[in-house]
Design goal:
Layout lengths: L5 E9 L2 E9 L9 H30 L3 H24 L12 E3 L4 H13 L4 H23 L11 H23 L2 H6 L6 H18 L4 H5 L1 H15 L28 H28 L7 H23 L5 E3 L2 H9 L5 H15 L1 H8 L3 H25 L4 H19 L9 H7 L2 H15 L12 H5 L1
Antiparallel strand pairs: 1-2, 3-4
């Protein structure tokens, strides 16, 4: 039954402190929207995540000199794997998966290390295909780290508190805003054509942004659920009329592309594997932040046994899905932040929508020309639609932190973590001359801010004790 336009209040008691979060939802986590509405909302999740899923593969293949044919295969498999992994995360199979409306996609956190491993392999005489085999092998075996770590998360309730996860969620949103604004100005294609920040790009992106904001505030639930899709379609049509969309690349795509597991094989090298150990730990922290935001915007608890069971299942799903991605010739998967903004803006938090999202991703991976149509959407149009979503993610993190009561100790944790996390976002070259291990770990604002929040929560005096009421159901999850 729909939670039509209700004000849902989730309250969780922990050791005498009440943690609450307000969320206005049209459909809640376990509601089943009609098929038409589900597909409508699912398309918006796809539009918000599509570029983020294919971009790492394009960047890695470009850096390693992978052939266009193999690049197309990897991009298609990135979408296909995202479909499978999203279904696992939303459906939950035994202990695997969060059971939330959580999307999976190619992780940007591994971009630098993957390129580093690949270029080093090629420099030592390997072909690009052999370098890919090494990358996929390292990623496959590295996923075991996250799988093992997920089984012990319930022991970390004293450390991974709402203050920590809320801070990570804020950093995720604030970090993505830079990406959204870069796209709104035209992105990399505009820099290449010297039109970055042009009046045309800003006007087009600004129009899409205005449409999304206006429709999100509409009292009509269909307009609200369709705000992002409508904004993107309007912007896309205008861009076509202005001659900003190039469809020539679609003629070179095959009609269908079937997946072939282990196309490039698996290889392994411990020296290449070492940096990935820490990265999978960092990915687990990012996943905790993403899933906390998903719980919050879906009107679900952000603390307590149910919350930790979902977090454990989500991190386990992250590890399992990264292994699946390697088998299907693509790079590690992780939970995506973008869909949290879509949930908050559409008011639809139903995990059943995730099944439709998974199906669309899988189809996009099997039919390259369909994905190609999405791929040529101008960056300014995407930026206008995603910018407000990224801001919504930061707001969700702020709500999580504020719901716990922000005392002086918590304020210090949030302030220092935000300062360091966003500092590396604004000045990414600060680690350019540092060892690869340090650069890989701290070049991400999310990992820097997340580690800072965890360390400060451990080291600063006066940490409140959290009652660890670990039920058998939680410890076995």
């Amino acid at each position: 039954m729909a939670q039509a336009d209700r004000e849902s209040t989730i309250a969780q008691e922990m050791d005498g402190d009440r943690i609450s979060f307000q969320s206005e939802l049209i459909y809640g986590l376990n509601d089943k929207p009609p098929v038409g509405e589900s597909i409508f909302v699912a398309i918006q999740h796809v539009l918000a995540s599509f570029v983020g899923i294919i971009t790492p593969g394009l960047l890695i293949c470009g850096a390693l000199g992978v052939s266009p044919a193999d690049t197309g295969i990897i991009v298609s498999m990135s979408l296909f794997a995202s479909g499978i992994c999203t279904f696992i995360q939303c459906r939950r199979f035994g202990p695997v998966g969060s059971g939330l409306l959580s999307l999976q996609g190619t992780s940007f956190a591994f971009l630098g290390p993957v390129i580093g491993v690949g270029t080093a392999a090629i420099a030592s005489g390997s072909t690009p295909e052999q370098a890919l085999a090494l990358i996929f092998g390292v990623c496959f075996f590295g996923s075991a780290i996250e799988i093992i770590l997920s089984r012990f998360l319930h022991l970390l309730q004293q450390i991974i508190t709402p203050v920590v996860t809320g801070t990570v969620v804020m950093i995720i949103g604030l970090s993505l805003i830079k990406t959204g604004f870069f796209s709104l100005a035209g992105g990399a294609p505009a820099i290449a054509s010297e039109t970055f920040g042009s009046t045309q790009n800003l006007a087009l992106g600004g129009l899409v942004l205005a449409i999304v904001v206006s429709l999100t505030l509409s009292q009509n639930r269909f307009l609200r659920m369709g705000a992002i899709a409508i904004g993107l379609v309007v912007g896309y049509v205008i861009a076509i009329v202005l001659g900003l969309v190039d469809f020539s690349s679609l003629s070179t795509l095959p009609l269908i592309r079937l997946p072939l597991p282990l196309r490039y094989g698996l290889d392994f090298n411990f020296a290449a594997f070492a940096p990935f150990v820490i990265l999978y730990v960092i990915t687990a922290i990012e996943t905790i932040g993403d899933l906390t935001a998903t719980s919050a915007v879906s009107g679900e608890p952000v603390s307590g046994p149910l919350y930790f069971r979902r977090i454990k299942g989500g991190v386990l799903g992250d590890g399992v899905n990264s292994a699946i991605a390697a088998v299907f010739n693509t790079f590690p998967n992780t939970t995506f932040s973008q869909n949290n903004g879509v949930i908050q803006m559409t008011g639809v938090g139903s995990r059943y929508v995730g099944f439709y999202v998974a199906g669309i991703f899988a189809i996009l991976g099997l039919i390259p020309i369909v994905g190609g149509v999405f791929q040529v959407i101008p960056q300014s149009v995407l930026g206008g639609a995603t910018l407000v979503m990224f801001g919504s993610i930061a707001t969700a993190g702020l709500n999580i932190v504020a719901s716990t009561g922000l005392d002086r100790r918590s304020a210090v944790i949030v302030a220092v973590s935000l300062a360091l996390g966003l500092g590396v976002v604004y000045s990414p070259d600060i680690f350019a001359d540092k060892p690869a291990l340090i650069k890989n770990v701290f070049s991400s604002g999310i990992s820097t801010g997340g580690l800072t929040a965890i360390l400060l929560n451990i080291l600063l005096p006066g940490r409140p004790r959290v009652a660890t009421k670990t039920s058998p159901e939680l410890s076995e999850a």
